[in-house]
Predict the 3D structure of the following.
Amino acid sequence: MPRVSFDAAEHLVRYRDQVARHRFVNWTLSVHTRLDIDLTAADRYLAERARAGRTPPLTREHLWLCAAARVIRERPLFNAAYDGFRKLEPREDIHLRVTVERPQGMGRGLIPHADRLDPAGMARALEEARARAAEPWQVEAPPRRRPGRLGRLRDELAEVVNDYAPHLEPRLGAASGHDAGTFDVVNAGAYGAEDLHLVVLRPAVAALVVMAPREDVVPGPEVRVRVPMAVPFCHKVMDTDSAGYFLLHMQQLLDDPGASLGGEGGA
Amino acid sequence: MSRVEGGLEGADGAVLTRDDLPLAERLDARLDQVAGLRYQHLCPAANLHMGAALAALERFRAEREARTGVRLGLTAPLVRAAALALEEAPLLACLFDGRDRLVPAEHPALGVSVDTGDAARCLVLERARGLGLEELAVRIREAAARFRAEAAPAFRRAAPGAAPAGARRRRLAHLLAREVRERFAYLLPGEVERRFAGHAARQGHFTVHNLGALGVDEFKGFLRRPALAALWALTAQRRVVRGPDGRYAGERRLPLVLIFSQDLVPLDQACAFLRGIVRRIEQPVSLLEGAP
Amino acid sequence: MSPRREVPPGLTRGQLDGWIRRRTAYINRFHVAHWYPSCCVQARVDLTAADALRKRLNAEDDQPGSRVTINHMINKAAANALRNHILFNGKYTRRDSAMIYQRVHAANVVDTGGMATRIVIRDADRLSLRELAAETHRLVSARRLTLGEKLDRYSELQEKVRLVEAMFWFLPYSSRLERELSHERALDFLVENPSTVVITNPGTLGVQDCKAMLFFGNLLTCLRAMAIEEEAVLEDGQLRFRRVLPVGLDYDQRLCDAGPAVRLLNEIRRNLEVPEPYLVGPAVEDPRAPLAWPAGRGGEEG
């Protein structure tokens, strides 16, 4: 296979804002918590719906996005904005930022007010998000960066001050920056990932990562389709139990999607 | 190292008693790393997992080993697969200082980490793309034997008597100076490039670790700048799957973990790279592609 | 359909402000300065023999206060294995310094319904499995009884701390500053301190994998037990199922490479898979273990 042409300088210019967003002061101590979600009931629901010829055609992705939005509505801690210190602001609206596949590569789409959508509405919203998706290097509000070596030195000294006195961060004019949406959902399974540990960046407190489905032989014996899902979370804000209950709640909704996700969300 | 009554015999034949506090020595030796590796030097490392079915590779290995007489093992095909996959994803062989410098590798050098029983050491294969499977296998095996023979004994004699005056102060000054150098290297012209060259010479542009022999089912690690990615292979697992005929059969799978820098490597490119390695292991004839 | 588990409701919007104030101690503990680059290795343990032993022990003595659970067996297996890998039984003190402890005091994370807390089982390696189970039951019951009151008092205290912090905002950072600037107490052995290793069991929530990006706090090692799974295996062409427990070990990459960490993990696996000689009584010391406590070096006894 011929060597792929690659321009490192151009790549760095494109990803400049992402690099700024990922500076260590924005990392949360991201604890990866994974549960294999059984989608047998969800698959049955999708098959029945397809047999009945209902439109638009639905996929598992639409169901878990709906389920995630409903769980977040019940658990507002996951939708909050956190400054990394003492300020935890609940956010009213639930806007999911999702990864979308496109011919030109992965993009980031936004599904506004996702908790108000039923699966059919979610399918339409996901298509719209795909059409308007941002490039993976784009950042909604990147943090400020000074140019040159001395600029870097000043930025790093400001980081040291922030590190010791986070109270002073707003006064120093520093900010974490932020991405679009209020909660990230990453469909890593679309690219074949069997597990993915991500670093969550403040002001987010958690994210949802969905892996590729797997067929497990379980006692019976029978074969079950399971999708590993993970919630990496900021350990300052919550413990493993909160993330575990988030995933168990997802499982409950996906065990009976017709009743729990079928109607209007009623926000 | 052999055991003798009442103490331990070091590689140099000296008999050490356990009162020499080997743990203290060991920690002291490693604390240089503690001082030199702070969170500022780390990547925001994402860990990506995929599995590769091993059946085809095992058949391929058996056939090829019978023909050439060279035992291939698992590491050599893995390194070859990584070298080929890096051609399609040159970003992952770049070195990055965390902010302003992203330097691609014209001919990526691959590092192969070898467990010596106590600490890991790295074999660097220059222009790894040009090395065939058998040559890789031979070089890795020879290096592993050499590293294990050279490995420092776990117990070393403590320095006799009290530490010389001022030694502690000098040590602290050394640790501080090291940290300042690490942290502010970019202020000195040419220093970042020198560091990149040093890193490539010590660990290659991309490092492959094989923990398979140790018995590890899952792994999560971190990544230190300037590397943008590293690959870890774990112990092969046997999964039960149901075939199309409804029968259950065992399938051996090799779990692979790619650790990549989340800021600069988009998820789809990281996945495509790892899928490239999985594909080559599952279709091992492709490992011969462009072989010397 | 997956088995139903009870899922408690999440916090309401109105509770969030109080929640973050309650977590002040966690916010300080999980500050980026306290992280270190950890790796996690994980192994799957076949529980067939451990299950048989547990059933036998509980049939012999079915008092609720001394019933043996898998959780107790995990703690015991880890404590026994640490005896031969004492390098992992320690904590950081000041910057660039670490202490290794001779005694193994295992901290166990207990979920008390919304706030994780720790109980510390002293000398876990010297206790028998039955003694460890009884001690765990006793400590957990005592902690559950008193935690509600303690949390209220803790919240009140935090209010007062906030008032002080308003005047001296640097107070939570003064200890950190001291730690950053001091290299003084390097390698100070033989110091008494509760909790030398932490063992957590998110598996009770059904969590199948749980790893931190970087480890936190000052302990060198963290062990995690995940949810027990029914794994299909083929034996002589016959399909059967066995219970397996994924056990993870977080270690500091700066202090050792994967090899020694995996050897500790493998000893934990062996203790659980061959429980009769290695798990029931006090730890079996291996005089050849290269990372065991140096023989003849005193330490805090008794």
Q: What stands out?
A: Residues 1-22, 153-163 of chain B have pLDDT under 50 and may be disordered. Residues 133-150 of chain B form the longest helix (18 residues). The domain at 10-152+165-288 of chain B is CATH 3.30.559.10 (Chloramphenicol Acetyltransferase).
